[in-house]
Write a structure and sequence with these properties.
The chain is mainly alpha-helical. It is built from one helix and no strands.
């Protein structure tokens, strides 16, 4: 891409759609998967090793 060229409007629309998809769909989905995975790991550790004691 040349430095002085005008960007294609279709490309800008595609980039905006990609940005909205990433921020509105993928970030929340990945956050839920990460938190659920962490909770599952803690649950399995407690299932095998017993509850935490003092």
């Amino acid at each position: 891409m040349q430095s002085g060229s005008v960007e294609d409007p279709q490309r800008k629309q595609e980039e905006l759609r990609s940005f909205l998809f990433l921020t509105a769909v993928m970030v929340p989905v990945l956050s839920v998967i990460f938190v659920a995975g962490y909770g599952f790991i803690v649950w399995m550790i407690q299932l095998i090793g017993g509850p935490p004691t003092h």
